[in-house]
Amino acid sequence: MNKSRLPTDWTATAVQRRTRRRYAAERRFRLMGLAAVWLSAAFLAFLLASMVWEGLSGFRQTRIALPIDFAAAKLAVTPAQLHGRGADLALAGAGLENAVDGAATRAFGPGGADLISDGAWLVVRDAVKRDPALLRGRTTIAVPVASAIDVAAKHDGTPAAEAAVARLQARGLLTTSWSGGFLTAADSTDPTRVGIWGALKGSLLTMAVTIVLAFPIGVLAALYLEEYAPRNRWTDLIEVSINNLAAVPSIIFGLLGLAVFLGTFHLPRSAPLVGGLTLALMTMPVIVITGRNAIKAVPPSIRDAALAVGASPVQVVFDHVLPLALPGILTGTIIGMARALGETAPLLMIGMRAFIAAPPSRLTDPATVLPVQIFLWSDDIDRGFVEKTSAAIIVLLVVLLAMNGLAIYLRNRFETRW
Amino acid sequence: MSALAVAIVVFGLALIGWLAARMRAATFRTPGRARFTALPVHYGYFVAVCALVPPLVFLAIWSLTAPALVTDAVLATPAAAALPPPGFERASILSEARELGAGRGYGAFHDLSATLAPAYATTQTRYDWIATVIALLLAFAGGGLAFTRVRPDFAARTQVERVVMLLLLAASLIAILTTVGIVASLLYESARFFRIVPIGDFLFGMHWSPQVIDARDPGASLGAVPLFWGTFFIGAVIAMAVAIPFGLMSAIYLTQYAHVRTRAWMKPVLEMLAGVPTVVYGYFAALTVAPAVRQLGVALGVANASSESALAAGAVMGIMIIPFVSSMADDSIAAVPAAMRDGSLAMGATQSETIRRVILPAALPGVVGGILLAVSRAIGETMIVVMAASGVATLTANPFASTTTVTKQIVDLLTGEAEFDSAKTLAAFALGLTLFVITLALNIVALTVVKRYREAYE
């Protein structure tokens, strides 16, 4: 067989065409990859930008300059009543709300009382409490406008509201400014009066329960599995169930919480205690898995050295391995906690979806948490809640960003490469 | 004294025991003694544990049994004779009286609860004092007995370490306990459901409308096939149609083409997609994506384009899953031996030909395993579908039409006003059991595939 092949003729048009085609395919493939990365990143940017765009106005509030003639209103309160705890009750009893509504009608014409927020008289009340001398004369107080007017002033509202806003703006009565009320108030039925503090406090209490339970249990379980557990069927069973728990849909944990904590132990519904217990069961496997990786990264020479100078196995682990693995464990814990903080579905199952107008002060008080509050507001038909929902999302994302930033900082600052 | 105050006092006693035992053990260190069985601090821990465990165990048992004992004692008082027979009214009067007795209630709606409240208050106080005295006695007895054993020849370290090991074992058993808890509660409630609705009707029934349940034939309106289809359609078809191309291509680009520095900041950016809470995605899907998808559907001439379409929920869910698919693909591509890639490149194949014909086929089992895990995550995802998908179960393959999912129905069934034991709420547990079984199976299959494949190259 002496039939040798001819060398490839690289200048032949057919070969060149094929090469060009292959290079074009190469470029196309590469571009597709680049497009996939950029589109994903662009989607993230669009999501965040649209939330910030929609939500920033939620931190601002439109106010209207309301002239009030207290002397003419003749409120039946004595200056002595305006001090101490009875002041709120005294002013409410004296018909301050009606006086404010009357002032609005006089100032802005018929229907003027509908222009101001239902909570406007509370602002007037606080102003009067600060300076009782106001009651003797007439004054102008900037009060929040009603939700429809607020929406119309900031975005597009109903035609009627837009007309009212145009009329008021022509008289120079409206001002829109940053309001701290959103960060300090709790839930309300009136979008101009809602705030995020109640939900934030509920989240803090829930997270406190979660970390107090999940962190020690998770770390101890990780230490046991990584350092002491004999290789047998029981250990395998524990490992399999931890790995599976990490992949179980979160709503299943909600069903567990509903059936066990509420159904069997009769713990109070909607309470941060139950929410924290449920989320702790969900977070624990995450802490165990990341904790085991951190413990595995501690080199065996450390253990051998400690054993060689006479430390017991428990001393080796608690005095040497654990301190060295702690930065990694903490990073994993923070990431697990961040996930628990953004979790909604299991908390809906245990009843944390009620309307709660007062921030919880105990672990057994009914409460709501940030993501559930977002869900509840997103369901509300009042147009004024749209920007509040986005504003609450901004608060949630800022908290999550801070937690993840802390995790990255801890990892970079304390992680040892062996 | 409240249980918390008692616990604090007991902890204080344990601390005193710890200090005392440590001080006493420190005196053992006399010159001439060569060997010790434990450090002073071990003696301290030994005494502290002995002082702490018995009263805490007692308090735990007591707090479970005491409310029933208190109620029994109150029922024995003459005023309780006027109570209505057992039932809702009796329970509400008793719980109101308990709240009043504890000084918490907002006022008595029932006259009777006001008369029972003082009885509750005095009985509660008496039982609280009994508990306090017993707990303190147990703490003293435990600590005292332990203290008498603080001697140089007593191996306190061994004892303390045995307790530590028990603690470690108990912590890792919590995982099994949780799994057992999930399986048991789902099975128990589902068994009750299947006593009302035949399992065949539930699994193979084609009609789902829990709003109207016929009491004579509840199975007729609780057939879950439309839900299974909707879950599969949104989670495994639409979401994956978005997540697989984007996730896979991102992983290929970042591992094969991108500069090391680009990869270093691009990968965390993509992973941020997975860190955004699902409720944010849900809100985004409902507010921004769903109306756009509906307009698209109308523009395409789809008659029943819904504003709660499967496409909106599925697409947003797919975007959420991108980093998940991407990092799984990343891992399995990185596990392909470099020799295979280099061989292909040396033969003159272009980079994309190498990726498509050599690397991807070699990495395929890992990629498939990752996709299965992603599917299991997608069908268990709740908030996006709760906020963006419809509540009406329809059996349709039209992505612009409305469909519902298992998770959405679980939330709808359990957040309504129905009482806890109705067929409606029990159905949620049956759906939960189905979901649990399916995700578990997907995870096991996926992990097996991934594991097999890793072994082949290592």
Description of the structure:
By secondary structure, chain A is mostly helical. Chain A contains 17 helices and 3 strands. The longest helix of chain A is centred in the N-terminal third of the chain and has 43 residues, at 13-55. The two termini of chain A are 61 Å apart. The mean pLDDT of chain A is 86. Chain B has helices at 3-26, 40-75, 88-101, 111-148, 156-196, 199-204, 225-257, 260-275, 278-299, 310-334, 338-346, 351-380, 383-388, 406-414, 423-457. Chain B has 458 residues and is mostly helical. At the A-B interface, helix 1, helix 9, helix 10, helix 11 and helix 12 of A face helix 5, helix 7, helix 8, helix 9 and helix 10 of B.
Task: List the defining traits of the structure above.
heterodimer, A: about 425 residues, mainly alpha, MetI-like fold, 2 domains, three-stranded antiparallel beta sheet, about 65% helix, about 5% strand, B: about 450 residues, 15 helices, flat
Record the SSE blueprint:
The complex is a heterodimer of chains A (418) and B (458).
Chain A: H1 13-55, E1 60-69, H2 70-73, H3 87-93, H4 96-108, H5 120-130, E2 138-144, H6 147-154, H7 159-170, E3 174-178, H8 181-184, H9 197-228, H10 233-247, H11 250-264, H12 272-296, H13 300-308, H14 313-341, H15 345-349, H16 370-379, H17 385-414
Antiparallel strand pairs in A: 1-2, 1-3
Helix pairs in contact in A: 1-17, 4-5, 6-7, 9-12, 9-14, 9-16, 10-12, 11-12, 12-14, 13-14, 14-17, 16-17
Chain B: H1 3-26, H2 40-75, H3 88-101, H4 111-148, H5 156-196, H6 199-204, H7 225-257, H8 260-275, H9 278-299, H10 310-334, H11 338-346, H12 351-380, H13 383-388, H14 406-414, H15 423-457
Helix pairs in contact in B: 1-2, 1-4, 2-4, 2-5, 3-4, 5-15, 7-10, 7-12, 8-10, 9-10, 10-12, 11-12, 12-15, 14-15
Basic shape of chain A? flat
Element order of chain B: H for helix, E for strand:
HHHHHHHHHHHHHHH
How helical, in percent, are the residues of chain B? over 70%
> Main β-sheet of chain B: number of strands, strand sense, barrel status?
none
Structural class of chain A: mainly alpha
